[in-house]
Design goal:
369 residues; alpha/beta; TIM Barrel; 5-stranded mixed sheet; 12 helices
Length: 369
C-alpha cells in the first residue's frame, strides 16, 4: 500500500492493443502522440519533422494521407520512422488500403464515414492482413447529421453514440484492435463525453482537447481537460493539440504526465516564480536550462530557487538543487545535501554538466541491474 494514498491514480481497466510495437491500454504506460504538419508528399521534410518529434519523446506519430500521392510518399516515411505511424486517411477508404500496405501501424478512420459496408469490410481486411490497429476519432465539430438532428447540438451523449456506432461496424467484422477518441474544443463537453464512454466500452481511449489553441492558452486548456481525466484514471494515450510545432505538443504532453506521476521521462524542473529576494535571474536561468537539457531522457529532478527561503526545502527533494546566495555565489545541492558553491558566470554550464553526469550514472546503473 502506498504511504501517500492521496497521490494514487487508479487507472481504468482497459484491454490492450498494439500500435506497431507499442502497447496501448491495459497496464502499458500512457503514450504521447503528435501529428506532422508538413506536406506528406514532401517525404524528406516529413521525416525531418518526425525525427524532431522522436527526439522529444513521441511514442506514436500521426501523418495525414489525404490523396494517393501522400500514401505513395508514406511508404518511404514509414520505413524511416523509429516509432509507429498512424495514417490519417480522412474519408477516402482507398487511402486506408494504400496506407495499410505502405507500413501504417494504425489507421485513423471512422468506418461509418467511408460509405458502404463492403468498403468497411475491405478496410478491416487490409488492417488484419497488415497488422494495423484502427483509431476511431469522433469530433464534436463533425458529428453526423442525424445525431445533430436528434440531440439538437453537440453533447456528450451524441459523441458517445457516434463512437458506439463506429465501434459496432468494426465488431460486426470481428475486428477488435481499435482505440477511440471523443474530442471537442470545449473542455466540459470533452471531459463529460470521455467519462461516459469510459463506462460504456473496454477499449483503450485516446484523449485530446481538439483545437486547444496557441502554446500558452492551449497548454492550459489541455492540462485542465486531460489532467482531470488522467487524474480520474481515464486515458491510455494522449495528444495535446496546439497551434505550435509538433515537438512542442510532445513536450507539453510529457509535462502533463510527469505532473501526475504517470511518466518520468527527462528533467523535471522545480523553480520559483522569482521575486526581489532572488540571488540570480531565475526566469532566464530556467529558460536556458530547459533548452540545454531537452536531450536528457533519464528521469531527473532539478530545483532552481532564487533565494534561501524555500530553496533548501525544495533542494532536499530533488536530485540536483540550486539556490541563490549573496555576492554572486550560489549553493548547489546533490541528492538533497549541500555540496558546494558556484559563481554566477559558471552556473548554467555547471548545472548542465551535473545533470548530464547524473543521467549517465543512472543509465549505467540501469544497464548493470
Amino acid at each position: 500500500m502506498s504511504v501517500r494514498p492521496w497521490r494514487d491514480i487508479m487507472r481504468r481497466k482497459s484491454r490492450q492493443i498494439m500500435v506497431g510495437a507499442v502497447p496501448v491500454g491495459g497496464d502499458a504506460p500512457i503514450t504521447v502522440q503528435t501529428m506532422t504538419n508538413t506536406p506528406t508528399t514532401d517525404a524528406r521534410a516529413t521525416i525531418d519533422q518526425i525525427r524532431r518529434c522522436e527526439d522529444a519523446g513521441a511514442d506514436i506519430i500521426r501523418v495525414s494521407c489525404p490523396d494517393e500521392e501522400s500514401t505513395a510518399a508514406f511508404r518511404q516515411i514509414a520505413r524511416a520512422a523509429r516509432v509507429p505511424l498512424v495514417a490519417d486517411i480522412h474519408f477516402h477508404y482507398k487511402r486506408a488500403l494504400e496506407a495499410a500496405d505502405a507500413g501504417a501501424a494504425c489507421l485513423r478512420i471512422n468506418p461509418g464515414n467511408i460509405g458502404s459496408a463492403e468498403r468497411v469490410a475491405e478496410v478491416v481486411r487490409a488492417a488484419k492482413a497488415n497488422g494495423c490497429a484502427i483509431r476511431i476519432g469522433v469530433n464534436a465539430g463533425s458529428l453526423e447529421k442525424d445525431l445533430l438532428e436528434k440531440y439538437g447540438e453537440p453533447c456528450p451523449e451524441a459523441l458517445v453514440e457516434s463512437a458506439l456506432d463506429h465501434i459496432k461496424l468494426l465488431q460486426d467484422h470481428d475486428f477488435h484492435e481499435y482505440k477511440v477518441a471523443v474530442k471537442a474544443s470545449d473542455v466540459f463537453l470533452a471531459v463529460a463525453a470521455y467519462q461516459q464512454l469510459a463506462d460504456a466500452v473496454d477499449c483503450p481511449l485516446h484523449l485530446g482537447i481538439t483545437e486547444a489553441g496557441a502554446m500558452i492558452a492551449g497548454t492550459v486548456k489541455s492540462a485542465i481537460g486531460l489532467g482531470s481525466l488522467l487524474w480520474a484514471g481515464i486515458g491510455d494515450t494522449i495528444r495535446v493539440s496546439l497551434s505550435a510545432e509538433p515537438e512542442q505538443e510532445v513536450r507539453v504532453g510529457f509535462d502533463i504526465l510527469k505532473s501526475l506521476g504517470l511518466r518520468t521521462r527527462g528533467v523535471r524542473i522545480v523553480s520559483c516564480p522569482s521575486c526581489a529576494r532572488q540571488g540570480f535571474d531565475v526566469i532566464r536561468t530556467v529558460e536556458k536550462l530547459e533548452e540545454r537539457l531537452q536531450h536528457i531522457r533519464t528521469p531527473i529532478s532539478l530545483s532552481v530557487l532564487g533565494c534561501v527561503v524555500n530553496g533548501p526545502g525544495e533542494a532536499r527533494e530533488t536530485d540536483i538543487g540550486l539556490t541563490g546566495g549573496g555576492a554572486g555565489k550560489h549553493m548547489v545541492y546533490l541528492s538533497g545535501v549541500t555540496d558546494h558553491h558556484i559563481d554566477d558566470e559558471k552556473m548554467i554550464e555547471h548545472i548542465v554538466s551535473l545533470v548530464e553526469k547524473k543521467a549517465a550514472e543512472m543509465e549505467a546503473e540501469a544497464e548493470a541491474a
